[in-house]
## 1
Amino acid sequence: MNKHLTFIAALAFATAGIAFAAEAASVKNIVIVHGALADGSGWRKATEILEKRGFNVTIVQEPLTSLDDDVAATKRVLDLQEGLTLLVGHSYGGIVITEAGNDPHVAGLVYVAAFQPDKGESLLSLASSKPAGSMDIKETKDGKYLYLDPGAFAADFAADLPKAEADFLAKSQVFASKQAFAAKIAEPAWRTKPSWSIVATEDRAINPDLERDMAKRAASDVTEIKASHAVFASQPEKVADVIEKAAKKVGE
């Protein structure tokens, strides 16, 4: 009888272990935070690829009015997820996920041609440390928001996209507040959570060497892709591969 009970207990323990492993390996939620001077529509191809691979993908359409507002918008989306989530950020979105990634729902971070700040750093301080190609950034008449001149958008942001796609991105860009670009990070989530970084080697918005330096500092797993700043749109399959790899790794 005792042997029988021992066997049942062992079986129950093993079954629980298998169930736990299955649960741990099921990080299926992907939340994407788009960058400034863009919106979430450019992520459509990558989203469709990830969904075909079984992931639940949600894109945060943050207001770009301030870092606090953008982090709050991201957390609202995180609160809707069931289970753990992989948080993905492009460009300025990397600033957002660095702060929002401290949320307990977040299992890991993926930086896609993104800023990856440390405590006390901002987009402006990082961008000025290693300047990239000269982007034709303009101010709105009220002096509070910034945008990329639509005529220069393709060359500066999306040089490897077909003209029609680049033009659409230019027309759908979300203006970014100066306040958001100047905001400093309080507690970088990459210090406590695993991270991955995609370096766009032809990036003219963020210096590729800066992307490499930030990723090295954070001990991120790095993938280099020959692409413009709009790597998420021009190389969606390769970007999806990195995101899938990260999702599987954080689930181990």
## 2
Amino acid sequence: MIVDTLKVFVTVIEQKSFSRAADILYISQPSVSLHIRNLENELGTKLLHRSSKHVEPTQSGDILYQHAKNILLLYEEAKQKINLLKNEVTGSLKIGASFTIGEYILPALLAELAVQYPKVDIEVTIDNTEEIAQKIHSNHLDIGLVEGNVSHVDLNIQTFAKDEMILVVSNNHPLARLPVVTTEDLQDQVWILRESGSGTRAFSDLLIEDLGLRVKRSFVFGSNEGVKQAVIAGLGIALVSCLIIRKELDAEELTALRIKEKRLFRSLSIIRPKEPTTSKAIEIFMEKLLSSEK
């Protein structure tokens, strides 16, 4: 197998000796020589300078050594993942998610996880960011996925993605006709907001404060769907995640506003206790979450 030959080659380079490589790999020195000779014949080039004292790579050998190290590393990673698939993963996984993540990111991820690991029991709690943080803090959940800032200082917080926030209005709203809106255009508007404790609400409040906006009136809804339907009905303006309005924008049920020289992003974060419990199910979920958002 080529992996075995590369392992012999790398060991010879690092030990600078055929005999020491043979001792480490528990094979004979003639076997080491055969591996190297076969490799040189396959590549059609000399890979090693041999002397009575030590072995040094040629220029070709040095190139192969660098790539061989990467190949062996990738091979070991592949073996670990294959071994993981062969072993049954069981146990429970208690996940908490804020509304945007729980409704628009988590379902597809869990569907894939359930197919690969059917014996893992998954329990999902969807609530606003502050409530999820409280449940993580009290160890009622294994993992929390939230948007916005978390006030608890004794939690581990890790960003796993960025989320663009967009201002939306109904198609009949006066601002819908403007190609770009300014701070002045946003003064004295009616706002549709999420409830206190929501990451989206916190981000909206921060934008209103940063831009120094006067709010004519506000309506508060406890769900993303409520906010969307209120905007579609023409009740006011809202700042929402791009994740929740893709279908409405494609169907031209809403109009997105471009703020002059400004794009808005927030972090989506994983929160866990400072001293989290761990299990194979938790490790697998974390790996899937982080790889899916790269």
## 3
Amino acid sequence: MKKAQIVIGLGFGDEGKGITTDFLASQNPEAVVIRFSGGQQAAHTVMIDDTKHVHSSFASGSLRGLPSYFTEHCTIHPVFLLNEREELKTKNGNIELHIHPLAKVTTPFDVWQNRTNARNLEHGTCGKGVGATMKRHESPYKLFAIDLIAPREMLMEKLKGIAYYYGFADEKEVNELLQPFLEAIDSIDWKINDYTWLTSFDHLIFEGSQGILLDMDHGVFPNVTYAYTTSKNACEICKLLKIEDIEMYYVTRSYTTRHGNGWMSNEKEMNLKNNEEETCTFNEYQKELRTGEIDYNLLNYALKLDGAYVFPAKKNLVITCLDQIDEKFKVEKLDVEFDAIYGSYSPYSKDFKQIL
């Protein structure tokens, strides 16, 4: 029987979905890892021995040797993808990446929009063009993964239309922005495959992005992401592939974090320990990583909310960064019953322990 494991963040992102996915990949070396939301803005950090990698355009099983699949709900940026592919090669990671034909493509014009638009900066952005890409796809000016292998003349007409959509009128400027983008497209052997490709695997690991509290339907607007960050997309794909054996891995740090603007409960500066490997540091678009005490009411909200999308399923809880604060995580404050609870210590530790 085919099995699916779905990794979901319970907060505002940065919970430890990458190391949880890596843990599952280490237990299931014949699996495929599927990204079902978000895109190149992910910073899912995995450390294996002395090798560290920040996964964005590849799923977090690639360092373990597993192939990656990006669904139609994801975005891709050819330049970012190419750069990460070259980095993964030096680390002997698996660079096999299959992409759904309807995955959305981020262009240089989308990145420009994310980094210069005042409203984007106010609402919060990673500066990788994901939000602008999703917003543009509400207009007629769309660009999908399948277009990357279309005749070049057709691709260029679509790119010119996107440049026009953003108000670019200088042909020289447009060509300069497109040159590295087109070179990246030509440097990649694109594997564009629909969900039929996944049927050859008996074990599927679904790697979520961001967290439930940033979901476009359930987060506090306007500081949300343009994605469904619950298990909604993953469960729909499981139904399509007729997978009934589903296991959930809900991930939270032992404290709360939020990278970027927006509402956050229990916010305060935490005296954290053993966080020298923290990847989520200051950047000019998201600013500082904000912290706060764990909010059990919000965790219960997120858990019950996701239960509306997945049923039945085995439920596991993963608590990361257990060694970074003095206070013990109080599992008894959660209303949901779990089949197992796992703990992880330093932010990118492979040392997962079943603690209940």
## 4
Amino acid sequence: MKKTDAQVQHDVMAELEWEPSVDHADIGIAVNDGVVTLSGYVKAYPEKMAAERAARRVAGVQAIAEEIKVRFASDPKTADHEIAKRILDMFAWNVSIPDDCIEVKVEHGWVTLSGTVDWFYQSNEARKVAGKVSGVVGVSNLLEVRKLPTSRDVKDRIMAAFKRQADLDSGSVTVVTDGSTVRLGGRVKAWHERGIAERAAWAAPGVTKVVDNIVIAY
């Protein structure tokens, strides 16, 4: 009975795992109508040849498309699972990121973050940290912010931020919340006061969008 592609893939994987001269961790296997495509990385050219020979030994393999690349120890580690591991390590080291709440998926260098966090800044920090890892070509941030903001909470944070500064008055700033969106209005005396209000709004729990309509009153 002719093997299915799934059976051939399983047997090739088992053969690579069994072959002592091959580190199969970074080798990908795809099978289509008996044609086996080997991809990924090995540490030396002889290992690349050994992987190809091992695949050829498997019954049911009609042909081999060999796309394995040799990557030396000094080369950047850009396999998907290595990228994911580095992102998780960086999350664990960053006190601003609740790493136990975030799932990381990497496919061809593209990172997808999912899960739920309590604060917008945690979502934003996770996105920025993931994007800095070498080998990452893009980040899809699907993290959800759990809490919804209240107008009073946002207003209190703006007032507290203004009070920490000299000669600033938050009394003329208006705050309206719509779900996770905060709309700022009113008047302030200078651009930097508007920036303080906006940053304070972003710092409130659950905020995912800030619409700043504050006017500068010269």
